[in-house]
Design brief:
The structure holds two protein chains of two kinds.
Chain A lengths: L16 H10 L4 H14 L6 E4 L1 H16 L11 E5 L27 H8 L3 E6 L33 H8 L5 E6 L5 H7 L2 E4 L19 E6 L2 H11 L30 E4 L2 H4 L3 H14 L3 E3 L4 H26 L6 H11 L3 H21 L5 E5 L12 E4 L2 E4 L9 H4 L5 E6 L6 E7 L4 H13 L15
Parallel strand pairs in A: 2-3, 2-4, 7-8, 7-9
Antiparallel strand pairs in A: 1-3, 4-6, 5-6, 5-12, 9-13, 10-11, 12-13
Chain B lengths: L8 H14 L9 H19 L16
The chains are: A alpha/beta, B mainly alpha.
């Protein structure tokens, strides 16, 4: 891993978190200088519409504290001086937690940061702001009727993907090297795919969701987006660990992934998901998976049994459980929702409970069948999205040769995976003109396997976060 | 995968009206077409799931430990 050049002409916009932390630790850059540069980029690239709040004062104070600590030779942490931002459903002390909504602007400011923010800052990282997202996370597009759409840095007329759209725009646009998102049905992996980023959704229950606004409790995951696998591992290792404030956070020890990143992946048994995952895939998605499979020598194909039904069950659980979070607000403030979100939540409130319970029972059956597959394979490859980023506002696209609504179908390949909580790294394949993601799927609690495979792909150049053209000339 | 047919819209309109009243959810008539389209899609997908044969003893899986 190359360090930041010692001539101090550090390209702070495109340096990785690891490179920034190394430069700050070595005194080649001050944390204050790094954070001021990040704030300047955020101000200069407002057109991406990535941020909904910037916490400049707080970030400056934290950076000064890091610089003072360094002057006193105190340890700085593995993410010293690294600017990061969070989807605006994470609590940030002093800000109302919007979760992409208008309604939540009336909430009292959060009194304490989300656990993951606390853990990243304990490792030396510096929060610079909160990010745009689809309303209440019920979204795959990155559009927001209140704040406007976040824009894809590779083509600002195109979707970032959602619902962690601002997270995708901020990292792909060179504003911050790491952003946090949440993923209920694909909301980290879809923007990672469209924006050409590494997106990481660990096993359900691995990372604490404490003090984040919920969408679907039995499906909600949180995780990072970054431009390198090493930055995913660095931030993941800083965020791991049990948290009694999140009832589903597992009682597992921290299992460091950074050292495992460079493990030899040659002996791993890797298969490509066929059947359902080929039928809806565009030629670009097929090409992206083929490139990855070829680089890994993965000749085997397998089928996730009943993947289409799994996606259907995830859809049903999502709409019903999501509606239960919003039932009281729907009674009193329905007019203030994004109309598209409101109509889905109202519909979700009317789904008969017996059908929802059938979906939960099917979930257990499906989980058992998929876990059986992991007796014979270590990793499964699948496209992250049916194709590259659609245009902002686009309503329909071709899926398996049929014109299909965009909104509900961008997550068809991510939903059957998060449905049973499997860990996934979405890796960016730099196709021209638009990148596209491939899911590296591992067995529960084997995040380090998915990360190591993603790292191998990065090393051979098959997976790479491409620098957007807007960066040229800046 | 079997795709069950669309539910008949007339009873679905009646169901929406009745269920929304029971739940005290105010529904603006202008929202009805989109709401119904969402519910139709959800019920179609739910029927696909419910059509899958599972034994009476099948249990849900609220915990996902390996």
């Amino acid at each position: 891993m190359a360090d930041v050049a010692s001539d101090a002409r550090v390209d702070l916009a495109w340096a990785s978190a690891g490179e920034i932390a190394a430069a700050v630790a070595a005194g080649r850059a001050s944390a204050t200088e790094v954070i001021e540069a990040a704030l300047a980029r955020i101000a200069a690239r407002k057109a991406l519409n990535a941020f909904t709040a910037v916490v400049a004062e707080r970030a400056g104070a934290k950076a000064r504290a890091l610089d003072e600590a360094r002057a006193k030779c105190r340890p700085l942490g593995p993410l010293a001086g690294v600017p990061f931002a969070v989807k605006n459903l994470f609590d940030v002390a002093g800000l109302p937690t919007l979760a992409g909504s208008k309604i939540n602007r009336d909430r009292a400011p959060a009194v304490r940061d989300a656990t993951l923010i606390e853990r990243l800052e304990a490792a030396g990282a510096v929060l610079v702001g909160a990010l745009n997202m689809g309303e209440y996370a019920y979204d795959f597009t990155g559009e927001n009727v209140h704040d406007g759409p976040s824009r894809n840095p590779h083509d600002t007329t195109r979707m970032t993907g959602g619902s962690s759209g601002g997270s995708g725009a901020a990292v792909a646009g060179g504003l911050v090297p790491i952003a946090l998102g949440s993923d209920t049905n694909g909301s980290i992996r879809v923007p990672a795919s469209f924006c050409g980023l590494f997106g990481f959704k660990p096993t359900y229950g691995r990372l604490s969701r404490a003090r984040s606004f919920p969408f679907v409790g039995s499906l909600d995951h949180v995780g990072p987006l970054a431009r390198t696998t090493r930055d995913l591992a660095l931030s993941y290792d800083a965020m791991q660990g049990h948290d009694p404030d999140d009832p589903v956070c597992a009682r597992r020890p921290v299992e460091p992934s950074l050292r495992a990143l460079t493990r030899d992946t040659k002996g791993l048994r890797i298969a490509v998901a066929g059947g359902y995952f080929r039928r809806g895939a565009s030629p670009e998605s097929v090409a992206a998976v083929e490139r990855v499979a070829q680089a890994l020598g993965a000749a085997r194909e397998l089928e996730l049994p009943e993947a289409g039904r799994a996606r259907a069950a995830a859809f049903v659980i999502t709409t019903a459980e999501g509606a239960s979070v919003h039932l009281n607000r729907l009674r009193t403030r329905a007019n203030e929702y994004d109309p598209a979100v409101r109509d889905r939540l109202l519909s979700g409130a009317l789904v008969p409970a017996a059908l929802v319970q059938s979906a939960q029972k099917f979930r257990r059956w499906y989980r058992a069948r998929v876990l059986e597959l992991f007796a014979d394979v270590d990793v499964i490859l699948a496209p992250a999205t049916p194709g590259p980023a659609p245009l902002i506002g686009q309503q329909m696209f071709a899926l398996d040769g049929v014109e299909t609504p965009v909104r509900a179908n961008l997550g068809i390949f991510t939903q059957p995976i998060s449905f049973i909580g499997l860990p996934v790294v979405a890796v960016p394949v730099p196709l021209d003109p638009l990148p596209l993601g491939v899911q590296i799927i591992a067995a529960p609690w084997r995040e380090e396997v998915a990360l190591a495979v993603a790292h191998t792909l990065e090393q051979v150049g098959v997976a790479k976060a491409p620098r957007p053209r807007i960066a040229n000339g800046e | 995968m079997k795709e069950p047919s669309m539910p008949d819209p007339a009873p679905l309109d009646d169901y929406i009206a009745a269920a929304a009243r029971v739940l005290e959810l105010p529904i603006d008539p202008a929202w009805q077409p989109e709401l119904r389209a969402n519910l139709e899609l959800t019920l179609r997908l739910a029927a696909v799931v419910a059509a899958f044969p599972l034994p009476d003893e099948a249990d849900a899986a609220p915990v996902f430990e390996a």
